[in-house]
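Handout, section B. The chain below has 288 residues.
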Amino acid sequence: MSFLTEWLVNLIKEFLISGIMVNLGALFDIVNDQIGSIAARVSTTPAAWNPGIFSLIRNLSETVILPIAGLVLTFVMCWELIHIIIERNNLHEIDTWLFFKWVFKTLIAVLILANTFNIVNGIFDVAQYVVNNASGLISSSTAITPDILADFEAQLWEMGVGQLLGLWLQAFLMYILVLALNIIIFVIVYGRMIEIYLLTSLAPLPMATLTNREMSSMGQNYLKALLAVAFQGLLIMVCVGIYAVLIQSIAISGNPIGSIWGCIGYTVLLCFTLFKTGSVAKSIFGAH
């Protein structure tokens, strides 16, 4: 009878341990795949991320927004000319060089407006250069080696059936939770790129005001927002690097239960920090 009981207990333990190991391995694999996806998406320029969307945004900007921006620029420069005339006591104290200055500013404004898309792409190219260089220094791998999983399995065989049943339920629930957290991470990373496309589509309008002293705040705030969302990618890479180090420290801790809960806790923390990267980048560049 004791032999039959021992065989039944071992059978149940084998079933529970196999389920735990499958859930635990899948949990870390899903996290690692998502982290690798973050690194790949963040280090991609808007033009390379989705050429179809980029072409659509460029055509929209150049054919629909740019003519409106030209009207805005015309209004802005006429307003500035009127302001120059009024400022000098209604033409009683006008210097000729002021008109040359106005013509020069208008020429610069036209050049900026005509090359708006190149300027915007240049900003993102610089940001991606920084991100790509940083990715070589920041580890983004959370992969678990087979030796670590083998050690986990050996520790599981030393536990009782009740402990294994509780751990199996926890591992299953944590697996579902990680899937939900991965969806949140997906929304954050892809949402940043959509924000980039939205900012790019309307670029000519704020750029048309850059050369005017009274209205330049619109263009300056736009450039600050553009720099913030561009360099947000670097902050995301830093968060991923920190997360990878924390996950690796969990993986070698030798505590299966603590590893599962620690992985979930750090994944929640990653989601929170990814949400914060946008506001941190805007605060750094003074965008609002």
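Note. The first helix runs from residue 2 to 42. Compare this with the example in section A.
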